[in-house]
Design brief:
With 176 residues, the protein is an alpha/beta fold. The radius of gyration is 16 Å and the shape is globular. Helix 5 runs antiparallel to helix 6 (94-105). It is built from ten helices and five strands, in the order βααβααβααβαβααα. A five-stranded parallel beta sheet has the order 3-2-1-4-5.
Length: 176
């Protein structure tokens, strides 16, 4: 599988906050793309350690950023999702909108935990999707972590206010 993964802010920050970005780099070598909107959200001056990590990962080439240029297919979709939705639709976050627009345009995978806001677009545009739980399961299946480590990472992420469908990784595995 060589599809690029377009991350939204919450999904990538789940790993950055608990210092587990190495799992992403092992699983998705040269496939991680941050929309510029996500990079900017992660560059918030009030969280300098996250900004420093993201900048370092970009400078080393471990992750890439992608800007959405005006007058492009992805810009039109991004604008519709994040700025001026059709009547009756609600605006979604800029990071989620950018990840959706880029994943659709470049036949990539959207990496997002925010199913409430994006599930209708995943269906509408027939997008492949992964969330933090799916990434941890992939790491487990590859032998990068065991279940105990998965539970510790999950717990650490919850302590950093990440919202998951279950309280433990073990419980999540039972839902699959």
């Amino acid at each position: 599988m060589t599809d690029k993964l377009f991350f939204d802010t919450d999904c990538i920050s789940s790993f950055l906050w608990v210092k587990e970005e190495n799992l992403l780099l092992k699983l998705y070598t040269n496939r991680i793309i941050l929309p510029k909107q996500v990079f900017e959200e992660l560059s918030n001056p009030s969280i300098p350690h996250i900004k420093g990590k993201v900048t370092k990962l970009c400078l080393s080439g471990d992750i890439a950023t992608k800007e959405i240029l005006t007058n492009t297919e992805e810009f039109n979709l991004y604008y519709e999702l994040a700025v001026a939705p059709p009547k009756g639709e609600r605006i979604i976050g800029k990071g989620e909108a950018a990840a959706i627009a880029l994943a659709k345009t470049y036949n990539g995978i959207i990496a997002s935990n925010n199913l409430r806001d994006i599930s209708k677009y995943i269906k509408k545009y027939n997008l492949e999707h992964v969330a933090t739980g799916d990434i941890l399961v992939a790491a487990l299946n590859k032998g990068y972590i065991d279940e105990t480590t998965g539970n510790q990472i999950w717990s650490n992420m919850i302590a950093k206010r990440r919202m998951f469908p279950t309280s433990t990784f073990t419980e999540y595995l039972k839902t699959l």
